[in-house]
Every structure is written in C-alpha cells, then in structure tokens.
Amino acid sequence: MDTIRKYFQFDTLNTNFRTEIIAGLTTFVSMAYILFVNPTVLGAAGMDKGAVFTATALASAIATIFMGVVARYPIGIAPGLGVNAFFAYSVVVGMGIPWQTAIAGVLVAAIIFLIMTLFKVRELIIDIIPQDLKIAIAAGIGLFIAFLGLVNAGVIIKNDATLVGLGHLSQPATLLAVFGVLVTFILMARKVPAAIFVGMIITTIAGMLTGLIDFPHHLISTAPSLKPTFGVAISHLGDINSLQLWIVVLTFLIVTFFDTAGTMIGLATQAGFMKDNKMPRVGSALMADAVGMTAGAVLGTSPTSAYVESSSGMAVGGRSGVSAITTGVLFLFALLFSPLLAIITPQVTAPALIVVGVLMASNLRDINWDDFAVAAPAFMIIIGMPLTYSISDGIALGFILYPIMMLAIKRGKQVHPLMYVLALVFLVFLYVTIK
C-alpha cells in the first residue's frame, strides 16, 4: 500500500484511497450515460447497438485505466459526444459513406494521433497556448457543461422565436432534475463530503419513489457480442482512398484533438495541476487518449475524448490516477450490470453538470480583462462553447481572433509562430465543417 501511495503521490496531493474511490465512482456515474447514448447515435449509422455498447465500455475502460496508471490523472476517457454525431449523421447519413469506411477513417486518425503524441507534437501545441486562453478554455467548458446540464434537465429547451427558452417546469421529469439541483447546491454550500455523488443518489431514489425512474427488473446480464464491429476498421483501411475521405479523417483529427486538449487543460486548471503554464505529464495523458481512440476504432466505436464530467470526481476530492483506475474498472463491471445503469437518467446527472459548471466558471476571475487584445479572444472562447454547442468551435473562434488582435496592436512578435499556424488550421476547419 505504501508503494502505491508513493507512486500516486497521495501525500503531496493530500488525498487517500477512500476519497479517490468515491471520486472515481462519481466520475463513472456522471459518464455512464455514454454507454446508452453512444449505441443509439451510432445505431443511426447502421451499426449494431449491442456491439457498440460493449465496444464503448471496453474502449472507455482501456483508455481510462491507462490514464490512471501511466499519466496518474483523475480523468475519464470515453467516446466523445458531438464527434459521434458527426460520425453518424454527417459522415454516414449525410455523405453516404458506409459506416465500415467511416470507422476505418477513425482508425487512421487514431494512428496519426499516436505518431503525433510519440513525437510530442500535441504536447508542444498545448504548451504554446497563452495562459489567458487556457483559463478561458476552462471557464468556457464550465459554461458548456452547465448548459448541457440545464438542457438535459429540461430547464432550457428549444424556442423557435428566441433559439432557446425556459422549459416547462411543471413537467415531472424536469421537477426531479430541479429537485436534484437544489439538493446538490445545498449539500455543496454546507460542505458535505462527496456532495455531488450524494446528491445524485438522493435524486435517483426520489425518481424511483415517484415512479419517474423505473426500478431495475434484474441485476446482471451478459455483455453483447463484439462480432459485428470488431476488426472492421482494419479490414476497410483500403477504403480511405479519396480526398473526401481524407477530409473526414482530418476532421476527426481536429475535432478530437482540440476537444481532448481543451478538456484536459480545463480540468488541469480547475484542479490546480498546471505548473508554469504547463500540464505535467501531459504527454502521457495525451497518449491515454490516443490509445483509447485506437482501441475504440478496432473494437468498433467512434473517437474517444477526455470527459469534462471528470470534474465531478475532482469536485469530491479526486486528484490521483487511482480515481481514473476506479472509473475504468467500473466500466468493465458495467458490462455485467448494465440493467442498473438504466436508472442513471439525464435528470440524475444534470445536477452534477450544473454544479461543476459553477465551480469551473470561477476561472473567469483570473483572465486579464484589462488587456482587451487578450480579453476579446478569451471571451469568444468562453461564449462560443455553449452557443455553438461545441468545445472545438469555441476554441476555434478564440484562436483565430487572438493573433489578429495581437498583430493589430503591434504585438505580433509575442505570439508563438505555431499560434499563427493553428489560426490558419482553424480557419480551414471552420470552412470545411460549415460548408
């Protein structure tokens, strides 16, 4: 035990096994919805839902355990929301590309990721991002996940006249989420240990007692077969033979790169891991993502990404890799206990997302608002993420504006040359995705 404590720096991080396990469980509960959402989304592309469920759990476990053991960060990794929708609705349904070819494109992007990570290209890009923009990414993610939580809760809904509006608060499901938010807010204010996790348990129990959440009919079920999707990406690598398909690969690469990089920076900033504007062991953390994406493609699922929901585990004290290992192991157990996961509804996870949004928004105080050339691109990142419903799009807006502003006030030499390159890359990225 002492060896494990030393390896994971428990004393330095002021943590212990109990705290880390609770944090890992909290992160898992916050992420568990992907086990059911991902098969539904990829099922629209014609993929076998059962196989996708198993692939999602295994890819998440592999990547998250790697993150915990090697990078030693309390960050969970799983197939990313947004990029899975791009895979299913834009690439397969919209472009008419067979899912077998699309999953091969994911594998190609993953291999490029591995190469970039081995040569520390991704690490270099993260290190040259200005501090104010890193802080803006953290705050923007906070607003994004709070918005996501409010939408999941039914508090915010689509409105044709104003784009978004207040939901129907009299709906029982929405009232359950509001109840969960209030309970969790009160627990947080009273500094109750593991307040977010306790709030989720109370909300789940309330949902079952009121009939809004069904009691599970049985506890254990066998994992669905991987046969329909396993290895399909490898056998269809030869299909990546046109400019259109390489643009798809490039889009997978850009979206996943900056979703993961932005999320990791935001989480590291929130948890206080950043040192001298750099994230220690960032190379190992990025490798965990690359390994997860590669494994996921072979197993049969869309690209993986670091999950902002990891901040819920950090909020209850998770600071070491033991938290991530716990989350990863629970993904493996989820293969057998999938009926129990059905009780984790959006109304249960929504309060956790909203509370974490409050915590991450505190980063706003550290941005240099007096320097408008920096404040403007930082603001575009912050406001861009929730309004475009995309972490990558929000980052793109700020990264394009930043060098323009610095050149306009004759401070262009202060900008790292790679930031100019990134601005051009994002311009092309936005042009291709919008077009």
From TrEMBL:
* Cellular component GO terms held in the UniProt record: plasma membrane
Q: Which GO terms describe its molecular function?
A: purine nucleobase transmembrane transporter activity
Which InterPro entries does this entry report, sorted A to Z? Answer: Azg-like, Azg-like_bact_archaea, NCS2
Cited PANTHER family: GUANINE_HYPOXANTHINE PERMEASE PBUG, XANTHINE/URACIL PERMEASE C887.17-RELATED
Q: Which UniProt keywords apply?
A: Cell membrane, Membrane, Transmembrane, Transmembrane helix, Transport
Q: What name does UniProt use for this protein?
A: Xanthine uracil vitamin C permease
Q: Which family does it belong to?
A: Belongs to the nucleobase:cation symporter-2 (NCS2) (TC 2.A.40) family. Azg-like subfamily.
Membrane disposition:
Multi-pass membrane protein
A Pfam family name for this chain? Xan_ur_permease
Where does it reside?
Cell membrane
Q: In terms of domain of life, where is this protein from?
A: Bacteria
